[in-house]
Each structure stands twice: as structure tokens, then as C-alpha cells.
User: Fold this.
Amino acid sequence: MYSIDQLEAFVATAKTGSFSAAARSLNKAQSVVSQHVINLEIDCNVALFDRSGRYPQLTQAGNTLLRHATVLLQQHQRLTYCAQHLEKPFISELTIGLDEGIPFQKLSSIVNQLELDYPNTSLEIFTASSIDIVDMIDKDKAVTGIIFSELSLPSHIDYESIGSVKFDIYVASSHPLAQQHINNTAKLKLHRQLLMRSRNNKSSDFQLALSPNIWYADNYYVLLELTLQGNGWCLLPNHIANDYINSGQLVLLPSEFKDMGWQASVDVIQHSRYSLEPMVKHFRHALRQLLTPLV
Assistant:
């Protein structure tokens, strides 16, 4: 019968494209990885890789097994986290990463209730771009993240959607685009774009680079200030731009299209090792109220 070691070697080889790369990713000798795959093929009584070329290629049987093996390894990882949790005390420190583009007015009341329910909890809140927060959750440097949805997350990160935030394209009232009627996106490419980007130079899925001339920041309030100074056009959350729209400093991009904005989903994310922690689970459920209207 196949083992976890065999499945790990098989999946790593399929993902990295070679036995040597798989061995490096698993911190094992190449001969060990190769033997695990061979033993798995013996157990399955079928070739999982075509070895006729320079690099091993998945056979049809290998492709079929890969889907099941990947899911099984993810479940095994969750089982391992659960088993480790059984012999450890509950966490006493909650580190929260918040994307600044997400309204946070209700966060203080949610945190205050958490303190009443778990009075011995130490709390840290930091702000960063959504992609940077995903990276910190992935590297176990934060417990909970409140982010704009990303199309791809590491398999060991759990997520829950709690609502959405409306974005629109804004320019300063003094910007040339404020006096034009935009009938296609080609006009946007003639002017500098101000774009959100993480510290490792990655942009969120809905932050599309359209202009060849772009200035970047990892903070929406920096982008707001650059926009107010007439440095370019920018996709901003409506709640950040509203006051400046009312004062006349910003204008919504005049456009032939009814809506050139974006409804960005907001997720709460956690590493799966923490998702069943009573305090973390309680906090995640409380965050469902974060985007409900203030009364």
C-alpha cells in the first residue's frame, strides 16, 4: 500500500518537473525520491511518469492520480496540525493583518468584544497590502488577515468572504482627464496610472496595469495623495475617496461607460492550523459584521 512519503515524492515531482527539483523541495536525496515514485508505481501497477525525455512527464494515469494525491496530502497536513494542537495550549496572541483599503471603523468594537470574551489575549494589528498579508499568513507571521480576495491562495490557508468594497477610477479635479469624456480605455493609457503593489512587486488580481507609465505604492492613502496632487489616475475604494469628492478635490472619471469600477470581495483568511482555535474562530465569525452599515 502506498505511503505519505510516496505521495509527497510523486506530487513534488509532478509540480517541480524533475526528480532532482522534487528532492530539493522535500530536502531529501534524489535517489530516495525516485525510489518512492517507483514504489508507488509498483503499488498502483501502472507507470505514472513517461521517462523517455529529458524530464519526466505525467502519463494519463499520473494525471488522474495527481488530483487525488494532492487533496489527500492537504487533508493529511490538516490532520497533522490538528494532532499537534491537541497537546498544545490555546494561542494567547492574535496578530491581525488588515488591508488599508478595507473600512475598519467597526473593527474596534469587534476587538473590544474579543477582549471581554478572551481577556488574557495579546493583540497586534498591522496594515499592509493584501498580497503581503497573504505572504505573512503563509509564513506564520500573522494569525488572521482581512484582505481583498485573491484568485490563488496557498492550499493551507482557509478563507471566508465577508462582503465587498466598491472601487472607482478617480482623478484630481485639476487633471486633464477630469475635463474629458472617456469612451474607451485607450485614453487612460495616455496618462500616468497610480497603482497598488505589494512589497515583493506583485499586484492584486483586480489591480490591472493599463498604462505604460505607472507609479506604485503599497498604501491606498499614499495613492490618494498622489492622485490629489494630479500625478495620475487611480482605482481607489469609494469610502476613501468620498470626502474628497464632496470637497471637489477629486472627480469620478467621466466616462461613457456606466460603471468602470470594481466590486472587490473581502475575505478573512487564516492558516488552517489556527482555524479551529476557539478564539480565532470566534473572531472570524465576529468579522462577518465588519462591512455591515454603521447605525
Notes: Residues 60-86 form the longest helix (27 residues). The two ends are 60 Å apart (CA to CA). The mean pLDDT is 86. Residues 91 and 196 are 33 Å apart (CA to CA).
